[in-house]
Design a protein that fits this description.
By secondary structure, the protein is an alpha/beta fold. Helices cover about 35% and strands about 25% of the residues. The protein contains 7 helices and 10 strands. Strands 6-7-8-3-9-10 form a 6-stranded mixed sheet. A 4-stranded antiparallel sheet has the order 2-1-4-5, with helices on one face. Strand 9 and strand 10 form a beta hairpin. Helix 3 runs parallel beside helix 5 and helix 5 runs parallel beside helix 6. The longest helix has 18 residues.
Length: about 220
């Protein structure tokens, strides 16, 4: 049986009188890819922020890779997040002054990997997503789909246990979105990490292992 990588237990998040998440219970296992669909304003981004330890719940606890986070201080939460979680956003947020290769090398070096080893891994991953001939190109010289592929590779370069993606194809045309999503699925399946992917595209979501939505602030199956 696969090991749970992400567990939310009774998670709530309120902002003053507004409750966005209400008694969320959710488990994501290693090697599992789950689609999260919900209307704008339903709390998808809030849920991803909670799961990614970027914000603390008002109530409940979030366990990542077997470690509960409720009682961790900010330093420990940050360390757990950096060690175990990769993020992909709708807008790639690449560093414009660096090449595609350098955008993948830098996060690895920050994590303590040597420049040489980081460059080898970056080259391997970028080759997998069809960017072997774009290694030296800066983001401004890459298409939108190519930039998003670089962003996905950057998210998994440090071998996280959990991948969180917030509308990773939402800024792309349908054809490009299909190509990027196919590469994302391939990388997830190859690495065996757990992935929670928010998307408005129900067709893409249904290609994942299961689909959930937010209803009255709670996570429920579709």
């Amino acid at each position: 049986m696969s090991k749970p990588v992400l567990v939310l237990r009774g998670v709530e998040r309120s902002y003053g009188a507004l409750t966005v998440l209400r008694n969320v219970n959710f488990t994501l296992n290693a090697g599992e890819m789950v689609g999260l669909i919900a209307p704008s304003g339903a709390g998808k981004s809030t849920l991803l922020h909670m799961a990614g330890l970027l914000d603390s719940p008002t109530a409940g606890d979030i366990e990542v890779d077997g470690q509960a986070s409720a009682k961790l201080n900010d330093t420990a939460r940050t360390a757990l997040r950096r060690r175990t979680i990769g993020f992909v956003y709708q807008f790639h947020q690449l560093l414009p002054e660096f090449s595609a290769l350098e955008n993948i090398v830098l996060p690895q070096m920050i994590a303590g990997v040597s420049r040489r080893a980081a460059a080898v891994r970056a080259t391997e991953l970028l080759t997998i997503v069809g960017l072997k001939d774009r290694l030296s190109h800066r983001p401004g010289k890459l298409s939108g789909g190519e930039q998003q592929r670089v962003a996905i590779v950057r998210a998994i370069a440090n071998q996280p246990k959990l991948l969180l993606a917030d509308e990773p194809t939402g800024n792309l045309d349908p054809t490009t979105a299909e190509g990027v999503f196919t590469e994302l699925m391939r990388l997830v399946r190859t690495t065996g990490l757990a992935a929670l992917i928010a998307t408005h595209n129900l067709e893409l979501a249904r290609r994942m292992d299961r689909v959930v939505t937010l209803r009255d602030g709670a996570v429920v199956p579709v």
